[in-house]
Amino acid sequence: MAECDGLVPQSCILFATADWDEPYWTNKQHCAKSLAELGTQVLYVESVGLRSPKAGSAKDWGRLWQRLRKGLSSLISGAVERSPGIFVLSPLLVPAGHRHPFTRSLNRRLLRASIARTARQRRFRKPLIWTYHPFMLDAIEGMDTGSLLYHCVDDLAAVPGVDAEAFRAAERILLQRADVAFATAPSLAEHCRQYNANTHFLPNVVDAEHFGRALEPGPIPDDLARIPEPRLCYHGVLSDFKIDFQLLIDAACMKPEWSWVFIGEEREGQKSPLVAELARLQNVYFLGYKPYAVLPDYLRGMQVGLLPSLINDYTSGMFPMKYYEYLAAGLPVAATPLDFQRACPRGIASGAGPDDFVRALGDQLSGERFSKEEARELIGGNTWGARCISMLAEVT
Known about the structure:
The protein is built from 15 helices and 14 strands. The chain has 396 residues and is an alpha/beta fold. The radius of gyration is 21 Å and the shape is globular.
């Protein structure tokens, strides 16, 4: 494509905070895929482990063993091409090893060796460094690299279990060294701009073609078809530090004639009593995890998309990917008031407490689903491919 001439790097090392095969794709996987589709060879470095494992968490220990297995495989075989042009490296590292000098030094050596091996095998030339966290600076020290891009998509220091002080200190160094920074929420952009003047606000975007399938004629899955309308939908990880489950309990009790549908599972290590209480309500339906490929089929049968976010330090810097996914599927959105709505107020109604939240839902239910034309107009240029190109245009 002509508009990409001179913008697309030959290679990129992308430091992610999520594994490639996570069931819920986010910016990391989508951006890697967009880069590869433009012709860039991408080394996708999976999560280095930002938080320490909980001693009593069977899921955390299971994840550690899985990381050990994948890390040994990567150490022996190198990065594996998991998608055309995308080579995935599962680093063999000490989890949260940035906290101690010895483990930090060990992790640096292991990561540098693994990256250098793949870069040499794939003939990377001055790769663009694209990172979602700061704990990779030691690994690229002295490497012949291109520009350094920091993509700030969440306030990771506010995630439970993350050493906030260590993260903030490392992020400050990253921002001072980065050639360019991008943030997905106004508050994140303001934070990054304190240390890097070349910071740009770019909201989260959507695979419009994929979620737009919900606006095409087609079947509704059997487990959803049995649920009476109107159906209010939330899809994604059911995380107790992101979602206001008490608000949902109160609102569902206020409106027993509405069906509240949840597609997804609780986050790793979580067993929330509020989720259990919500699930006991007769008008609440938990359908479990559904693959990305079938989400449009489920959204086809919904009337409103839910963004019932808790208001806290983490969510204040959050731009929910579901916002544009709901719009692309033709769904009006009801939300609690988050900072991102300052920049993206269209197609959404918000309320802070149960009464106002129910009122916002009623307003959205009183209208129709968006048509294809309306959805396209609401989304505009906020697609993965378009945003990737706009980001590359800012790289020095």
